[in-house]
Amino acid sequence: MFGIGLGNLVRIGLRVSDHILRQQEIEQSRARAESARLEAEASRERTTKENSIYRRTLLEDQIARDSVAVECPNCGATGNRIRRDSTGFCEYCGTAIQVSSGGIAYIADPIEKVRAKAEEDIRLKTGGVTDDQN
Ligand SMILES: [Zn+2]
User: How many other CB atoms are found less than 10 A from the CB of residue 124?
Assistant: First the structure.
């Protein structure tokens, strides 16, 4: 103790407080980096969600453009809209209606009915959007 003068004690004290200040700066910059990382992550999630909504809207627009009003060949209902060159189901009697590229509606054959039903189940499950649609 006797060998250390007041001047030395002050210098040691300054060095200790300097060290504490540096530690605080490091922690603050770490916190800033972490919050920037979280913000970037949230922004990426927002973009993904927006893209998904946008793709869904595009798909709905395309379906509306490609679809034609058809008369159900089974019950005669006229309220169904089905895409050309695809198979849909009558909203009233559930009949599978196949529509040609020329817009002609006829009762789908049993194999086409099963295929269209499976496709519709997938569409309902995924909300019409799959990951490979970019
Ligand atoms: Zn029908």
Answer: 9
Q: What is the pTM of this model?
A: 0.50
Residue 51 lies in a domain: no
Question: Which helix (H) or strand (E) segment is 43 a member of?
Answer: helix 6-66
- What separation in Å is there between the alpha carbon of 66 and the centre of ligand 1? 20
* CATH, residue 109: 2.20.28
Given a cut of 70, the residues of the chain with pLDDT beneath it are 1-3, 128-134
Total structural domains within the chain: 1
Does the residue 83 lie in any domain? yes
Q: Ligand 1 centre from 107 Cα, in Å?
A: 10
